[in-house]
Amino acid sequence: MKNIDAAINKASYTLAENAGIEKKNEIEKAMGVLANDGVYAFVIFCKSNKIWNDFSDSIKELNTLFPEKLQNFDDSKLKSDNYSLSDLLFVKEILEKMLTYTRYHLKAKGD
Q1: Tens digit of pLDDT for each residue in 3-22?
Q2: Containing H/E element for 74?
Q3: What's this model's pTM, rounded to 2 decimal places?
């Protein structure tokens, strides 16, 4: 088994590089949406604020580690019945950790 924390850190670094310091506020808002409203609202928020593409490489990295949980994670899959509640909670937890690490990476880049 691979180190989950290391994989999430790598994905968060990729996100920080793709998004850049100028999108720090949008990423923090996305984190709030995820925490308060859930995974599907997070995806909609990211797509509507044009930051979803910044997430795509990070999601692909995590998908290779958890293919059975993320199932090529995107909004069209979320609309189907492919996700159980435990899968969505797992995805939410992974995304929250990735966004937390991304905030730290962006803060380090900005200082």
Answers
A1: 888 888 998 998 898 888 88
A2: none
A3: 0.81
For residue range 11-68, list pLDDT tens digits in order: 899 889 888 888 888 999 999 999 999 888 988 898 888 888 888 778 777 777 766 6
Contact call for residues 99 and 31 (beta carbons, < 8 A): yes
Q: Do 69 and 62 touch, CB atoms closer than 8 A? A: no
- Cβ atoms of 111 and 26 within 8 Å: the answer is no
Domain total of the chain: 1
Residue 77, C-beta contacts closer than 8 angstroms, at least 6 positions apart: 71, 83
| Cβ(14)–Cβ(61) below 8 Å | yes
Boundaries of domain holding 19: 4-110
- Kindly state the tokens that stand for 46: 């990211």
